[in-house]
From TrEMBL:
Protein's recorded name: EID1-like F-box protein 3
Acidic residues composition-biased segments: 249-261
Originating species: Gossypium raimondii (Peruvian cotton)
Superkingdom of the source species: Eukaryota
Coiled-coil segments: none
Region (Disordered): 249-286
Positions with biased composition (Polar residues): 275-286
Amino acid sequence: MSAAQRRRLNPLSQETESDDSGILNECVLLLVFESIKWDLQVLCLTASVNRKLRAIAKRLLWRKLCVYRAPRMVSALVNGSPNGRIGGGWDALAKLMFFCCGCESTRNFKLSRPSPGHFAGASRFSKTSGRSFLTKKCRADLLFVSDPCEHPVGDKEDDLGIYRGVFRGFLRSNTRACLIGRQVAFDDRVRCPYCGTRVWSMTAARLVPKSAARRLGSRDGRLEYFVCVNGHLHGTCWLVPLSSDEENCEEVEEEEDEDGGDFNGEAYKKHEKVTNGTGSRSSLMF
């Protein structure tokens, strides 16, 4: 039998060999990204090359990035299972970890102008912060929340704080059960900036505890946040300027936090320079 006949009879095996060669070989990709310490900019660019690389990134590379950057947080979110699943996918979790989504005016939170999203130079997620966002009936849930990203708005206004978070096992959480039990409707204007699904306004649901404002450094009634069906949280608040004494007290509290992840921002500052500092959504490929 000639080589041409063998190719016609067994086209699938030839295609598999071709797909497993070079840059499409998953083992090679893992070695490359391990050698560059899972550089976010390179991974975004890799995922934008073609559909096959984007599929590999979605199935494998984003998970590896999350585990590398925040091992304790990821372990808690998947209950210690190395191959566990994440609501919304690993690409959505990676975007949540490294991207501040910005904000626009909502029904319960008005802005003079929108604030654009951008790569976060550094982010710290904490279970302790997350507990401040849970009502007493929902304190058994596990929620990681970031420190607010400060966005200056104007000389006459307080700084805008934008924060994000993620629940473990949201489908089985007390928070979701409470939302369903109260028959809270989805917000008709807002979508999750990380996975694109529908969201509940926790302000409209009256599930915003006063401890959330204290934790953020805001005042009660001057914040709003949303939770999507996959358990991603994003929100905004007006930040109260702190005195020197208050800053010292805050530092003591932070020492007692149960951190989920503290991400160094050097790799992401590089990317912002490449995109002229815009951090626009169009420059992302998650």
